Amino acid sequence: MKSLFIPRTVSRSALRQSCRRTAFQPIYAPQVVNSRLRRGYATEAQDKDLVIVGGGVAGYVAAIKAGQAGLSVACIEKRGSLGGTCLNVGCIPSKSLLNNSALFHQIKHDTANRGIEVGDVKLNLAKMMQAKDTSVSGLTKGIEFLFKKNNVEYVKGTGAFADEHTIKVNLVNGGETHVRGKNIFIATGSESTPFPGLTIDEKKVITSTGAIALPEVPKKMVVIGGGIIGLEMGSVWSRLGSEVTVVEFLGQIGGPGMDAEISKQTQKILQRQGMKFKLNTKVTAGDDSGSDVKLTTEASKGGKEEQLDADVVLVAIGRRAYTSGLQHENIGLETDNRGRFVIDHEYRTKIPHIRVIGDCTFGPMLAHKAEEEAVAAVEFLTKNYGHVNYNAIPSVMYTHPEVAWVGENEAELKQRDVKYKVGTFPFSANSRAKTNLDTDGMVKFISDAETDRILGIHIIGPNAGEMIAEGTLAIEYGASSEDVARTSHAHPTLAEAFKEAAMSTYSQAIHY
Predict the structure, then answer these.
(1) Known catalytic membership, residue 109
(2) Quick one: average pLDDT of 271-283?
(3) What is the pTM of this model?
């Protein structure tokens, strides 16, 4: 086995002490920072140890973590409910609709061959939306409970910088207040990128926010953008009966992070389910003045124009950092050409006591990435060290089948001129998938040609979103494909396909 093991006798505290002396040595000495932070205050009791602007995933996780560390914390959120885009109008509600629309589709189309006879199957969209809302409400209230448990002050309002240590808050219920902090975290998240020429009304021209709340199933839907959000929400409405066409500028769906081989398989499966795709195509104009929406498209490199009509157009061309109204310009905070805050490796801006985490700074706009940064930023603040491995941040697309990956894909490795080897295993040869009558997809390993260290893992198939956690752990600990292959996996499970793909990479699979 080629991975390097640390003896069990080495304690975690010893490792932390080692890290503290090396990779995570702070730029500012603690006593200098404390002097800098305390300057200009009437009394320390008047100021929070940490003020967080934004109660989304990055913000609320940082607030809880800081509260657990004994800091006095205030979290400012304008929405009136915690959890941000992810919990309120993104990750969570969309997964409710994805799950329930998949059940609806399966009952309609995949029961007879399982020996289950059903009568007339009807959609009650209002009830489906109610189930979604119930899930969201329970989770947001759960975060409020955790705030109380960890002594976090929840300030409902819109925050803006009054000075380097003070946030002016326009309260949701009227009036204003000022919250002062020795340290400030910016965690204002992101928003959908608009499409030029189309007015977002969340009825005919919608973002992901409107896509989770349509009052009826549109007859025709066009999705501009074939990334994860567009494919997930497109698949929801396709299952419920809409004729969905996806227009994608690139030559593959899933975005640049998805492995090309996996992307091709995904497209074939989604086409089989009824979705249509126009790749290497751009939308050049749109008209939403009538009862429907008319789009003009042509080939990405130019060519003959084509007209598309739709009852609803979903704009899913990406997201951008949200900093509107923060008034960070007043204190000189820097942003790049994409509007993201400029930070160092400890998430500090040019003003050391102000840090930025989550979607409004660099890196993938993923909730779990934001969580990791939240924890790391608080640890930098309280312990002078923190850790996020950006090479081990998984991505998941919750279509059916699911698609998940972590690490690099073949195109990225070729671009870096890295020699690698590939091993795959299809779910059609997996016993659990066969018994479940759900055999689409495969597991794919990419490892270093010389050392066998795992460089990337890509999955399309049932339960891929859960299975990728094992791959993320393997990459985090520098495992080889042989390490995974020699680890016992329970039988019969879908995870055995993961093990067999690892076996195929370093040697040969047994069952294929």
Answers:
(1) no
(2) 97
(3) 0.90
